[in-house]
User: Fold these one by one.
Assistant:
Number 1:
Amino acid sequence: MKKYVDVILPLPLPKYFTYSLPDECAEEVEIGCRVIVPFGRKKFYTAIVRNVHYCAPTEYEVKEISALLDASPILLPTQFKFWEWLADYYLCTQGDVYKAALPSGLKLESETIVEYNPDFEADTPLSEREQRILDLLSVDSQQCVTKLEKESDMKNILTVIKSLLDKEAIFVKEELRRTYKPKTEARVRLAGSADEKRLHILFDILSRAPKQLALLMKYVECSGVLGRETPKEVSKKELLQRAGVSPSILNGLVEKKIFEIYFHEVGRLNQQVKDVVELNALNEFQQRAHDEIIQSFQEKNVCLLHGVTSSGKTEVYIHLIEETIRQGKQVLYLLPEIALTTQITERLQRVFGSRLGIYHSKFPDAERVEIWRKQLGEKGYDIILGVRSSVFLPFRDLGLVIVDEEHENTYKQQDPAPRYHARNAAIVLAAMYGAKTLLGTATPSIETWQNATSGKYGFVQLKERYKEIQLPEIIPVDIKELHRKRRMVGQFSPLLIQYMKEALEQKEQVILFQNRRGFAPMVECRTCGWVPKCKNCDVSLTYHKGINQLTCHYCGYTYQLPKSCPACEGTELVNRGFGTEKIEDDIKVLFPEAAVARMDLDTTRTRAAYEKIIADFEQGKTDILIGTQMVSKGLDFDHVSIVGILNADTMLNYPDFRSYERAFQLMAQVAGRAGRKNKRGRVVLQTKSIEHPIIHQVIGNNYEEMVDGQLAERQMFHYPPYYRLVYVYLKNHNESLLDQMAAVMADKLRMVFGNRVLGPDKPPVARIQTLFIKKIVLKIEQNAPMGRARELLQRIQKEMLEDERYKSLIVYYDVDPM
């Protein structure tokens, strides 16, 4: 009987494809293994086996798989269930989920670009095919797989690429180079026996070569070779450093056959075992919260811990993690932002040492692959600390999921599909394992609050700040009035400048918050009002002074700043608005002595950059930190006494039903960074709308008042948490065709969903990367069957795409948009 496999391809295809198995690997293929398959005319992809069976498909000609990549599955059965749920709920395909879930090193395809590793040294001879690929790469160090296939004239090249990747002779390009650590370390040992007699003979031989003798003595000291049965391993680098000699001295000893050098594999994941410390004892409030959480987990699967900023939620988490691990189960600890993982890593490593694994996108791909593989084995990590993508990792026995700062919108993936929300996905994932989920935050999202207060989730409050620090004093400043009286210094009110000055004099630190990166959000001609716009997107360009260029924050395109206005040839081009870069400039003029750093998307492109900015601020090397919302997210600094929110209005005046909720969360979180041990912090909140109710709610830290107002409004206008939203996006290069298609699709939707359909409308940015965009909003009652709505949406999409005129239409969905 011929065997067949159904596979998931990393492409947005609605169904599985079937391939036949060659006899030689028919026995070894299991569900969850990767295979290389031909697809289309000349492309190869890494696909994942979903089923193995004996029935041949009849509607298309079956191709054969080209190679089997794994001896054992790289996906566990629960992950397939999870993928199905994601694709189903977020209206995308399993191929989309596959692309998002796996690290690139596990999904090679014809378009993958590979790059030669100049530091590669072969330990074993390479096969002829491997050597041929490396020869081609030595001519041109970066090439795509298709090109290599053509030039080498080899069939089935992906298996060769995979073996070179495993040997680390090549990299998958999409990584920053510096993040690769070597896999091996050169070490030194004595050639031959190491008894006292022989050493004395060697000392005599070397008496005329003092440097070689010193090196040998140093080796004897480092390795303890005389006192032990097995000498300590000594690395070449360390030995040379400690003896203070050049490598040529060591080479001389190797030539004399006294020393030999060998390579020891050290692995990429951080193996060094740090000394683990005992858990800190909880104070009475934390202990009470901890016990209430345990209590609520007996009846409910999800619990919300609502604790004010710096009430010590992390300590409570650490105790819960420790108890879960003691039962032999695994923990997934989710954070919204990479910056946070670097800070919390330290705290967790002190307690859990090497049982902790860290997973996020700023890690090089090879490290992500290694973590993935480790998680499949019996010796996986007990705790994974990571950002939203870590919900995709394999878990053998998950017992607890913690979602910290659960209100953060960075938990929601925007593009590409699956547009999932990691908090909601984590709750579902935990349920599949029979695990519990703890959501923690000082400012819960309104949906979670509703679930907790209606009894669907458990609800625990922690109202006292750690060591009884007072909440910061929030001082509102009316900058509209100050602007009118011309009393503002750039973007700073006199009060903020005075407080900053006092803080710096007392060697305290300051955080300034501005939710725009760049130098000036807009450049404008003073004469005729012309504003430079992106040629691919409908947005004005942001001026970045550091690179002296205009940049589009949507497609990344950069433009030269014109010397004169192309419309009226006037030369007065002025900056409007201000971003973090401009603030940084102004601060350096006002406080030339202070050390200033900024933290935004532009300064934190790499993992090291993040860690450096945070470490410098923690150690007091930086006095003033300027940042976008990155600085608001749960970072703990001990010496911050002043926080300045430079303009609260940009958050309030955004056309979105969540803008009030978000403004409250952002301001409360930013404010929470002020004031730590033994001193009350101050927050200066600058705004032009001083009478706005949100401003008063933030000052009084009155979360519940804000929620009650918002809930009443949302119930009236049919928004979450009472209704579910689905945004239907339509895209096309041709604007008039798109308008016509959007109108047709909206009519079809109205025939089925009636007045639950709004639109079609233009989103705030109506063209991105030369594609025009239209948006249709669907509001579905909370208790309506989502499965039925899904079927209807997919049927209508299919009808649209089967129409000859609308073939070029791109349709995608955003379920529960943020």
Number 2:
Amino acid sequence: MTKHIYLSLLFLITCSINTFGQKKTLQAKSITENITIDGKINEQIWESASIASDFIMFEPDNGKPISNDKKTEVKVLYDNDAIYISAMLYDNEPNKIQKEITNRDVFGVSDHFSVYINGFNDGQQDFRFFVSAAGVQMDCLATEDYEDFTWDAIWDSEVTITEFGWVVEMKIPYAALRFSKADKQTWGLNFMREIKRDVQKYTWNRIDTKIGAVIPQAGILQGIESIQTPTRLFLIPYTSAYYQQSDIGSDRTFKAGLDIKYGINDSFTLDAILVPDFGQTKFDNAILNLLPFEQRFEENRPFFTEGTDLFSKGGLLYSRRIGGSPIVERENLEAQLSPNQEITDFPSTVDVINAVKISGRTAKGLGIGFLNAVSEKTYATIFDTTTKTASKTVVQSLTNYNMLVLDQRFNQNSSVTFVNANTIRNGGFRDANVSALLFDLNTKSNTYNLYGDFKYSSINTIEDYDGFKTEIGFEKTSGQYRYGFSGKYLSENYDVNDLGINFYSNYHNAYGHASYRIVNPTKIFNTFRLNEYVNFEIDNTSGKLQTGAFGTEIRATTLGNDSLELLFELTPVKTFDFYEPREYGRYVFLPERMITILNFTSNDNNPFTLIIQPTFTKYNESGRNNYGFYLGSKYRFNDKFSLAFASEYTKMINDRGWVAFDDTEIVFAERNREILQNDLTGKYSLNNKMTFNLTARYYWSYSKNHEFFTLQNSGYLIPNTSYAQNKDRNFNSWNFDLSYSWWFAPGSEISVLYRNYGLQRSDIVEKRVSKNLDNIFKSDLTNVLSVSIRYFIDYNTVKNKF
């Protein structure tokens, strides 16, 4: 008897292992009747559809079968227009289902159900559709290294909370997907369920977290036959009105334009904007920037954030260059003026005339992306105080930006990529061309990864120059123990800053890391990861070290789902900064230093959540150190209303940095700095289509110099007692946005925005926060009220109506 029991157990274990290692298959059922998307699943045809069940935990306890009281059953139907998905998500405590109402593409504190679809079943790219228990939609394009939630499709979904759990019903039109023209379709398919209160995710086809790649671990959808790919033509006309009031008067502006999305074929989509309007994008977080580099801003314009996975290859696109600051800087223009001339109007940005992009991927895995944008000729106004006349000078010529990407994926998890970025300016301004060849190779089992690149830049200006960058790396990407090492070389004149952004060049680097992680919870942690790394960078010309760091990173989540992080980085050797002197070939000494960062983030399932992050940097230099503290808090009053406040404070004692050029000398200063930033955000959702959002930011920073130095050719500083100019800085910035958004129809939105902002710069330091606040609110703030309407028109819907 005992022998038979052992044999039975062995058989069950073997079957379970085989089941986990095989791809599950689901049959889609063809229908002719109408399906009403109401979250009720009461059409009789659903009863005869095949069921996808037996979900397996993805995280934290990878591989554990879902319990019977949380069982999940999914069915798929299809017709000539769309696929239909129903999901019964059982829950023995339905009153505990999390269902915070958020904006579209914001997950929030909610349970979620999602479907991952790969129409070519090639393991390369998923179309992912999520819906929360509150009925909020999220969608994205996903590859192994990138989830693009800026991509938005038009699809339908409804949810219902029941006495046994909750129900999801979805309709995904074929226009929102990409698939071959084959008569019999075979798609990659997976479903995921997230139970938020337990911080657990389950998938239909098991995803083994010991394997680096997720998409190739999908199941199979079969049964879809004889469907026709639809015409994918979408028109999105818009109109917007602005009223602005400031100390120089008031202004009214009316804009209208059109966005076009056209499916050229099954694989490729054309996106175009005619007369773009970016007036309601998020404000930029301006800071007191004392670094030798420009401040890098996030991209907030929808056209340049949507569907940009291909264009991010190689890191050659910094889209804020398009319509960003003029190529001629104000300081450079001022240096060319005579004593009787002054600038009375200098543009902060350049208007984009139009932009177009084509992107997609063929059935054989070739991704093609093409981006073109044109910005207009832009002028600054110069006033002559002697003749009392004004004139204009060009600070940005008519500029054409181009990018081409060819990305060939193969073996489901590897790729070779070519990228070209080209900037052409009219007139005597500089042109630029940058090309890159990249490779990312993985073993079939996703155990090891070999990657690298070669990039070449060519600049056509007064004196032409070119440069290159190359890198190669190897990593073990699976299992509990992982490691990797890489090396790169950047030549002296490597420059991608006409369409991309790069601060560092003329060095070579060696980097290595080794890590350990748990793949299943322990008695203490749900997740745990330890990473050790070493990084060395050496200047090519001088042979001096610019980076020499050893670091330890620890990231963990407790059984109570609080997050803990620790970063400790030690630079035990002297290094040199080759950028702070602002003059090529010069460098400044940096002492040994130690950086420590701690982070605690409480479980965001709780109504009140807290983030605490202290930081400390100690230099091997008398009295020189930095410390900072970040405190973030959020309170969720209910599923509709939440407020969050964050405060970040940094103090730098005896910091040293460049302040001026004085004849042939480079002047540095020893200074004290303080930085304070407060952020208030709020959200009130009337329902999952209407939301009020509040974003307010106050930023204050100063730099107070107390001793000046002269930089020697050796890189060390000596006291400078003769320099006496005031290079102190005091900076205040205030931004306030209150907006209302109503998605009144699929893809169609009415938005109302009130914006209030101001900025102050001074060389008189004011250390009292209350006084700085009082100064900026007594200044002439700018007020903007805008209304924008966008309407989504689907060619197929219009065609069917007529």
Number 3:
Amino acid sequence: MPGENLTRDEARERAALLSVDGYEVSLDLRSAVGEETGDGPRTFRSVTTIRFRCNEPGASSFADLIAPGVTSVSLNGRDLDPGQVFDGSRVLLEDLAAENELVVDARCAYSRTGEGMHRFVDPEDGEVYLYTQYEPADSRRVFANFEQPDLKAPFRFEVRAPEGWTVWSNGVGERTDGVWRFAETKAISTYITCVVAGPYHYVTDSYSRTFPDGTTLEIPLGALCRKGLAPYFDSDDVFLVTKQGLDFFHDHVDYPYPFGKYDQAFVPEYNLGAMENPGLVTFREEYIFRGKVTKASYEGRANVILHEMAHMWFGDLVTMEWWDDLWLKESFADFMGAFALVGATRFQDGWITFANRRKAWAYRADQLPSTHPITADIRDLQDAKLNFDGITYAKGASVLKQLVAYVGQDAFLEGARRYFKRHAYGNTRLGDLLSVLEETSGRDMGGWARSWLQTAGVNSLTPQVLLDAEGRVDELAVVQEAAGPAHQPAPPAGTPELRPHRVAVGLYRRTPEGSLERYARAEVDVDGARTVVGELAGAEAPELVLVNDDDLTYCKIRFDETSLAALREHLGTMTDPLARALCWSALWNMTRDALLPAREFVEIVLRFSGRESDIGVLQMLHAWANSALVHYVAPGWREAGGRLVAEGALRELRAAEAGSEHQLAWARFFATVASSPEDLRLLRGLLEGTEKVDGLEVDQELRWAFLEPLAAHGVADEAVLAAELVRDDTASGRRHQVRCLAARPSEAVKAQAWAQVVESDALSNALVEATIAGFTQASQRELLAPYAERYFAAIERVWAERSIQIGMDVVRGLFPSLQDSPGTLEATDAWLAAHEGAAPALRRLVLEARDDLARALRAQALAND
């Protein structure tokens, strides 16, 4: 629909014209249960009253609403013809008064795609569960509104729900006369309002904080999930992290939590990790672990809890004016989540995870043709949807970590405190933050912002070491380079510049015991193409120079030849886990940049990963090694490499401590790379109980992990998968079975999976995701080859007809990356050339996939040299 994709110019014009005093939203969700009626979508009644002012009486504007139909529209007591004023996405408002009241009575549709009011039927017991998800602009699928972040207002919700249900919203709720009524919120943006309804399992707790002035803050805490997940719900740990986080933020931001209660809902078929709705944070229910997982999973959940909590201040209390400054909430939440994780919880190695995982996401995104400055140019809502990316989150957080090193932690936190107090319940731009940081740090933030926030691309830092006649360091310099054109087209903001970096440079050598340890370190401001580190002159000759030791800045680390040789031989002996993680990350970046042969990277992983103590780093190495095998090694070495990796994984699985999380990680990795008859027989034996690895408990989640490779290699057929579903006839089990069914090596299976995803909209978002994951098996390149041409023929239609979330899943997930040949690259270029008028967001997704393919081909070419 033409009005769905709100533009920045339209939003600015409307914000200049209107201000909103409040919303009253009444939803009738009783239609969520019972048999479907009629030919159209299942709908619910939504009645919205908006009170707003117009500073140009007589002017025209519009409200946003995406709904199958509107029953009535009233403006200032005047009934309007819905057929004349509603076009499917907007309600035309003409001849506005200085003070206005709009009432819209609509039939809104329940969602199957996780956008708007999502409806889920639990296959285990037939119960129906509802929740809303709006960011960036899907609240208009549930109630009429002005859908942009800078038209904030208080909200009152009331909800009629089926008997026996509980309903939650942002404010405290109470049920009287069959209606749930919720306390009015503070002034918030439309996209963070929320409703959750259904027979959820609900657990409560409370948090109390007494401040220096003697006042006490009491926050009711709640946590909820589907009844079927209640036996696995470790709410005590969720509440523990929540309380630790609230203490941390109260210690550091000097602004009491402003939104009353703090509920956290773990909901099914969720598209995101979580969403920061004030008073009612929503999470994907996969954060409730049905089987044994490693510490990294618990750390990941804790990080997300704290990320969303940071949003209560960074994003909810103070909100960006438009999506250009999305970083003002997401970058800060990403950084503060890691900061709180290390500062307040048992996960003291959180910065290692940040360096190894989050930055890997940022480095990839910042080398795509779609890279953009952290402060992005967001023309419309489709742009906004795609900019929830590695730049806005992980690069932005990395840059903030650099900012803390640049201005000092005290100045940074004091700037945040002033920012909240000046702009509470308001909207801001970049300059509002920079001004308080200038006050607290005494530094000119303009130059820093231009270099770090308003340009794109990632710099590389390489050491240069000159030794004197006695073998000591005569001169050590850091050479900075911009992203090279061979690996990255010029981004929209122009050629990346050489930035100022605050870095630590570490010198390492082997001890008599054989470990590689740091013996000298210096911090220096790198600025320009070459910076001499004078403090290290005269040091004994290093075996390894680690630029960006302690991970203070955002850059790609490179090595001189001596350092690279040391890593090839001694990486596993590095005793510092953060330094080790940084070296692994640097080697992976070199592999992706076709500077280190992928085969060599795989061999280094096989040699040293068994000695990796940090479980999160180990699991990341597993993912990288598998990606190298699938995409980057020379095609002629894939089979032999896969065999070596599977043998290595099995060897480490058997050697790992019985019952340990390392054993579990190696078991899962072995399943992803198993392909030989012997490997598959072992997996089948572990499932059937005829084989055993001491200490390895094959729980239900691990059973599904073993079944996917068995299905992909034709060992587990439909009957076997049906029998497994009988064992696990749950929502999670259904998703696993769908993925395994689509993984089978059959032309008919692939045709059916393709039709279910591309030609039909019957599957929910979660089942679309599962089907795509099963469809794209690396061992089935020839079987999938015919779908390359079909992909390019279908994607523009899919983008036009399906929701943006499903469109993104299809365009990203079904791109023929496994057909890694120059012919596929040419076909991609031909589509781009023939579809210059396609939606910019669609073209961006195809360009990103093309870049990944071109990168893979460059790496393969290096391997063949």
